[in-house]
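Deliverable D2.4 — example input (structure tokens):
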């Protein structure tokens, strides 16, 4: 995989997480303290975000920063992730579409809410 392909894959991942969170580019950019055009360029794979920008995006999307660092190639993907949540597993499953992830999240959150 070329570096350009890696950044495009990272951008696609960030975009999918944003869509799953039902946020616009502008909303996520505001939450992550980056400009709207810069976030758009990251999502299109045109810019390599810094570790701090990835952390801000992860925080805004309620995903661990380590997940974003792995996607960016800053950490090994084989590293064990202690404390991974069901919601995070749903968000990160590459075999599910955004709509499927959204449906699973609603079902899971409904069960959790029903159990107090």
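Example output (designed residues):
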């Amino acid at each position: 995989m070329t570096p350009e392909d890696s950044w495009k894959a990272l951008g696609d991942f960030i975009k999918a997480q944003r869509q799953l969170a039902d946020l616009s580019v502008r909303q996520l950019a505001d939450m992550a303290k980056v400009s709207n055009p810069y976030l758009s360029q990251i999502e299109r794979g045109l810019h390599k975000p810094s570790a701090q920008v990835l952390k801000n995006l992860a925080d805004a999307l309620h995903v661990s920063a380590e997940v974003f660092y792995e996607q960016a190639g800053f950490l090994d993907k084989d590293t064990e992730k202690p404390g991974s949540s069901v919601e995070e597993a749903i968000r990160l499953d590459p075999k599910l579409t955004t709509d499927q992830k959204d449906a699973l999240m609603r079902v899971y959150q409904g069960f959790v809410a029903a159990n107090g």
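Residues 3-75+82-114 form a domain with the 434 Repressor (Amino-terminal Domain) fold (CATH 1.10.260.40).
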